[in-house]
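Technical appendix A lists one of the benchmark inputs used to test multi-chain prediction within the project. The record comprises four sequence entries:
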Amino acid sequence: MAPMDTITNDLRDDILSGQFAPGDRLLEIQLAEQYDCGRAAVRSALVALTTEGLVEREENRGASVRRISITEAIQITEARSVLESLIAAQAAKHALPDDHAELRDIIEQMRSTVANDEGKAYSELNRLLHRRLREMSGHDIAAELVANLRNRAAHHQYRLAVMPGRSADSLDQHAAIVDAVVSGDEAAAADAMTAHLESVIEVLQRWGDANVR
Amino acid sequence: MAPMDTITNDLRDDILSGQFAPGDRLLEIQLAEQYDCGRAAVRSALVALTTEGLVEREENRGASVRRISITEAIQITEARSVLESLIAAQAAKHALPDDHAELRDIIEQMRSTVANDEGKAYSELNRLLHRRLREMSGHDIAAELVANLRNRAAHHQYRLAVMPGRSADSLDQHAAIVDAVVSGDEAAAADAMTAHLESVIEVLQRWGDANVR
DNA sequence: GTCTACAAGATTGTTAACATTTGGTCGTCG
DNA sequence: CGACGACCAAATGTTAACAATCTTGTAGAC
């Protein structure tokens, strides 16, 4: 009834949206019922999500939502940093005038959400901006890798979003990225993106130091 | 009889070693027989390798070894470039004296194979060097991504290895990387790695221009 | 009271049969 | 001679039952 890819996407979304929390067990029968499909389809989805790094499977012991430690989240963000910088550079190279307008518009909307303290909306615009930059870059490989890395650290990203005063800093950094992309300056775009993610890493690091022991 | 992970690894190896060429169909029954297991295990392996980017699957039409175009191979190498530079920097930061000795030893062996024109052996040392750098870096995330990217472009890498005069250039570049890592200079290590992979990209680009129309 | 042995339940792993889809072949008709 | 359509074979997709494995709870011995 439901093709395998659909299950994979649905389950991925449900994990990312927090309906299944890190550590939660993923029982095949239960999922089969929930998504109205056979166990085989669920198994395939679990295998796929395991190689994506979102799910952990142990022989004869079943699957569970993978827990991501802080140190791992930092490494993920470091990898994202270099890849997104590549993307930003390529976006600066390939973006068209229409794209420029769209990027500027996103920044304006972000500015508005920050002024009104709408954390949720800001977070969505954040995702949108990064996604559009990936698409504009034309670099399918880097785009795919970054999308995956983002998913893996989604939980930690979430905590970041609700940190007080973080949106303001973040907004400036995003504006700088867009400025560089719009002006077609590849190196500046890459640098701005690196600076942005360095700042994210710093926050993660501080949070880790404060909470781990 | 054979656990799923084993099949996945075996099939991956057989694809990378060229026993299954790009475009070759991967029939479930045939593979089940070849690896002495059920179709279910084969299916799981195919799903896993599909999300790894090595296999292509089409609904109701079966799986085949994914073909990688030159432009895709270039993008793969570009992504590898930034990730391996990150790895080189981390390796420079974390490598211990024993590691330094090992790296220098690998370079010496490489020098010997180049002098004796042993392309095959050089290629293996090449892989070994990159792998050890990944391990020394301690950056599991970047290491995993690079390993995957290397697999995806394995076929094009192969063509590179047999190019005349390429080993000599490559050797100098690798020596530069090791020098930087051994001296603990993170930035220099990253730059040397970038230079190395830029050179690989250039070769791919020239080959592409010469062969695609 | 704690530890071990064992049995019951739950869950994954495997197999086999069945259903569906695809692609091609052959034959007929225009 | 070419085009259309019905069949047929091959392969994938799906389902259900069975086997193997792990976990949990319990009873008994020390």
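Residues 27-29, 39, 43, 59-62 of chain B lie near DNA strand D (CB under 10 Å from a C1'). Residues 4-65 of chain B form a domain with the Arc Repressor Mutant, subunit A fold (CATH 1.10.10.10). Comparable benchmark entries are summarised in Table A2.
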